[in-house]
Design goal:
The structure holds 2 protein chains of 2 kinds. Chain A is mostly helical. Chain A contains 4 helices and no strands. Classes of the chains: A mainly alpha, B mainly alpha.
Chain lengths: ~110, ~190
Amino acid sequence: MAERIKDAEDRLLESMFEAAPIADDGFSAAVVRRVRRGLWLRRLAVPVAALIGGAIAIKPLTGFVIVVARLSTMLPPELVNSATTMIPQAPTIVLGAMALVACLLGLRSLEE
Amino acid sequence: MAGILTLTRVEDDELVARVVSKQDTVAFGELVRRHQSQVRNFLRKLTGDIATADDLSQDCFMHAWDKIHTFSGRGSFIGWLLKVAYTTFLQSRRKSKRYSEILEQMGHAMETDARHYSVQSDEVTDLDKLLAVLDEEERAIMIMSYACGLSHREISDATSMPVGSVKSVIFRGKQKIRTSFDIKDHQHG
């Protein structure tokens, strides 16, 4: 209202629209409680979903691992040996990469 | 307690920065405490119902928490907050309108009209009578201007309307009030 000059009608309307301030009476505390609850729910959602997903996936996953293990025994031994002779550090590199990914994911979830 | 006491001296913009950067719920609580009265008064006048207005106010602050990073700091924080409150109000209106449409399609008659303003209180004040002659948009803009003291520019930001349109809505609203009520008689009691 500062950008224009108020006339008598404006002042009358202002006085008619005027209202007494509303006491907080726990309103802001209730809002903050809702906000905090929402934050906690968001933080819990990912780990809980991962747990549930893991629990559901564990049976088919073990079956899959068994199938892969059986297939690996069927591979010709020359092929397995040639991979380790070509890159001798291959298992260490794979393990390191997996550890790095796990660390990055852990750090990200801690930041969040 | 000491933290809350020191926050009372902190400007709105700094509190917003704390909320955005650290998700500081204490700083947000201080912002709510400062502005709840204006937001609740705005929504009470807009809806004509205290309980609905207070529910909408809570929803408004929840939306504000989610969207606070979009506050640019260009205008006042209360102007931005009233924009969120008005959007929350319009969304709830749309939902209730859709709800009544569905009920109508199912054969249930709904007596409530989304655009109709009715005071849910035994005591009807002069202001209630005055607001009843305005349509929803005029009511919101007149309240922002005369009850919340927002500038035309701030109302324009809050309603996403050009400043010229805000001015014409206020002009139209005043004309409606003038024709419906004898303002001069009211002035003299």
